[in-house]
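pipeline/complex-builder :: batch 7 item 3
reading input block
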Amino acid sequence: MATSIPTAQAQTFPSKPVTMLIPFAAGGPTDVVGRLVGEHMSRTLGQPVIIENAVGAAGTLAGQRLMASPADGHVILIGHTGTHAAAVSLNPNLKYRPVEDFAPVGLVNTNPIFLTVRKTHPSGTLAEFVAWVKANEKAASNAHAGVGSVSHTTCLLFNTVVGVKPNGVPYRGTGPAMNDLVAGQVDYLCDQAVNVAPQHRAGTIKTLAVASAARATALPDVPTSTEAGVPGFKVEVWNAMFAPKDTPAPVVAKLNGALKAALADATVKAKLNELGAEIPSAELQEPAGLRSFVGAEIERWAPIIKASGVKIE
Ligand code: MLT
């Protein structure tokens, strides 16, 4: 009897539109990836996937929303390196445990992250920027998507390595932060390929380095942090899909099947690659693979956050 209920639920799932919670503002990297994948998933699931930007507390409010949602698969979430890994060490008041309190569906993508400056900035290289930010620390403005977001933690690592404490300027996501960088209102922003690639190609910003070991395929003209002289500046960002904790396994399997179908689709793949996002391995697209990956990422971020000395009070 106990097993027939989830099976019956899975047969009728989804019986209504699925809401996909995006923890940051529309137009940013999480939103762009979520919409792209969600549109394809709606075709597999036979129901619309509706995007809801549930913004707040550097993306962690969306996780709380998911925890309070019925465990029937009709509300899902795109979490990332910030909300489901770094937040654990950064935020002693975090209201959820990323591994224990959700049902992982699958890793969606990984995404290189870059240090970018406004087009009118006097620095043309990372070395010049390091010299500038050291000399202008008090005046420098560093845009980010809230304390604990990946734009924040990535630039925090850069600032820590370089030894500066600039003025942080928080936004509801890097969509609006990037708009202000393009408008020349802020000096610099650490942001993901999905947001950076279109602006870089249009020449509206300057992209000084990618925080990865190798150059990004989508932006091969941008040097790595090591090539640019700051080897300690290395971060990889990921987005992952979660459902509420007690979602029946057959429902999670249906969501996972729809996610994998989206990631295997040639058009979705081409679009993600054009935006600089990478498709994860088959293992990480599975719920079990994602569960152990998130656990490892929480461990990996703990010493980085500790060394930075930053904590959300
Ligand atoms: C966004 O989608 O706006 C970003 O992923 C936020 C962030 O920097 O974490």
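note: The first helix runs from residue 4 to 12.
queue -> next item
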